[in-house]
Amino acid sequence: MAREVVPRHEMPRQQPDVRRHNFQEVALGYDADTAVIEAKRCLECKNAPCVKGCPVGIDIPGFIKQIKQGNFAQSIEIIRRTNSLPAVCGRVCPQEDQCEKLCTLGRKHEPVAIGRLERFAADYERANRPVAAMPSRKPSGSKVAVVGSGPAGLTVAGDLAKLGYRVSIFEALHKPGGVLVYGIPEFRLPKAIVQEEVDYIQRLGVEIRTSMIIGRTVTIDELLSDSYQAIFIASGAGLPKFKNIPGEQLNGVLSANEFLTRSNLMKAYDFPNYHTPIKVGKRVAVVGAGNVAMDSARTALRLGAEEVAIVYRRSRTEMPARAEEIENAEEEDVRLDLLTDPVRIVGENGWVTGMECLRMELGEADASGRRQPLPIAGSEFIMPVDTVVMAIATSANPLIRQTTPDLHCDKRGYIVVDQQTGRTSKPRVWAGGDIVTGSATVILAMGAGRAAAQDIDNLLRSNGDWAPITEETERKN
User: Which pTM does this prediction carry?
Assistant: First the structure.
């Protein structure tokens, strides 16, 4: 007799007509009863394919089994063995392309809601008992510097602290958290949760020094000469890109990086309690279709825009944002202007009044497998807008590479590393996260941090020889 499969449980959310007017968290989380029922959908596969899809190697069947049995505290203890940021990952990781994609149940039915269960376990911990620091191994006496306090930096710092190292994080901004605090909106990732995860890392013994710009305040070489035995660079890729079209210098044109940083980190969304407002017009166009574009569009609505459009030169099929984020945006009345490419921004008296666009059609696939957008002759039109947010891409800040000449970077400015260990061309320097891959996911950055922490520990404990990046290594990568 075939086993009856219980349908996957949806995540309770604020109603669209309510949430588009506030910055409170949209997804409300499972209650205990729902979490237990969802956990019981897990087949407890012996080979656990879901774990292979997790960049940080969480014991997924193990923590889900504990939820199934009502042992919520034990569940989070299992997660924290390999993941120092579970409340973050449970909210923003693309589980549908990682662990849930490999779920055995998902072959014929909907996969187990692994991410939602991880969030439940982390939220249970927050609500019922303080986050306990994991026991550390016997102190090694070695000092490690971490550049950047985003997900990669926090992960490598936490892992090394548990292994007995004295770790100092150097953060350029005045508040730790990296992209978690400046890039992801409050309604998707409350900053109080990020702060609690940062507090956990500090309780492990990690020192965090803010307003420290590596390459200006201090250089990589100066850190190495200041008794640090290893350095991990996790400075991210926060330098915004523009389309380089006429009119981008007009007032009312912002990068998504500036727009979200001013709203999230500088609390523009909470004006006048915080004196950092953003001028947002009635009609906003967000150029791009990734998660950052969705965050920007939904933020613009909450800041008072009457109409918000996502402008993207390909079709819905090619949109890189998570399906969940696209769905949330559409429910909140964000318009999708697809197969549309801006070619010029127009204005009056120095301010944006419109955006000239071309209609596009899709041609043959390019090397990446995506069909190339081609302009339709004579399809020009003016889209009336008074704010344009460019959310097309970011790149690596050049400060570190300019002040560290023996640190090999590729032609785009990203640091070249050994993909297995994170080692760079410079002895005793590792790197990971967006400064290596370009803009990617939180969990992939965390995976790079874990791998580098293991290699740093192996090298420093054994006093082994440094095997730097070579041309052959680069070709393999």
Answer: 0.92
